[in-house]
Design a protein that fits this description.
Blueprint: H1 10-16, H2 18-22, E1 38-39, E2 52-53, E3 58-64, H3 69-77, H4 79-87, E4 92-98, H5 104-117, H6 122-131, H7 143-152, H8 158-164, H9 168-183, E5 191-196, E6 200-204, H10 215-222
Parallel strand pairs: 1-6, 3-4
Antiparallel strand pairs: 2-4, 3-5, 5-6
Helix pairs in contact: 5-6, 5-8, 5-9, 7-8
Amino acid sequence: MSAGGAGGTLDDVNRRRLLLASIGGAAIIAGALIGALALSSGGSSKHTSTTPVGVGRVALLEFADPQCPYCADWAKTSLPTIVRRYVRPGKVQIVFNGMAFVGPDSDAALRAALAAGRQNRFWNVIELLYENQGGENSGWVTDSLLRSIGESVPGLDPQRMLADRTSKAVEEELVSSQAFAQQSEVSSTPTFAVGRTGSQLQLVQIQSIEPSALTPSLDAALGQ
């Protein structure tokens, strides 16, 4: 699932504050790696992320593109449910693996989110980008939009975020994420993988973006 887009305003964002409200802020963890994640379809490929949320015995790995409307829909409608049922109780940790295959605006948005991650605000920014998602490669990811988003996130330095977009650390994480998606033969978004933390993860075939599409795999991994 991929392509397309939908508009939004910062007024909408200020009403929702998705991750700040649904996760409560305290669950946002930066620099806490879930360990080597080896996808069963990707052989011995290993990947780590600095953008996990939550601490749990099961990992939910999401491959997503900031321009993908289905990714935005999942973040708005299903992610809060997954967070409430699995992340807050300490059962599941969510890890985001960014992709930028739709086009230039995907790259620009992902760089900004990864740069925000350097300040422990990755999830806040990616959610606000979804809220303001524009038409595919329409040039919607402007410095003005990113600055407004940055200013709306408590504790985030917008100027530092903008400057860090071209930093070595962000570049390396972008390249690593893209390579991992390719090695795992992931070609559409959102794509998910589930498994015990630190062990092999199984790609999950979903038919919808409803929470129920993932709960069987999460429950099975948890032994429920």
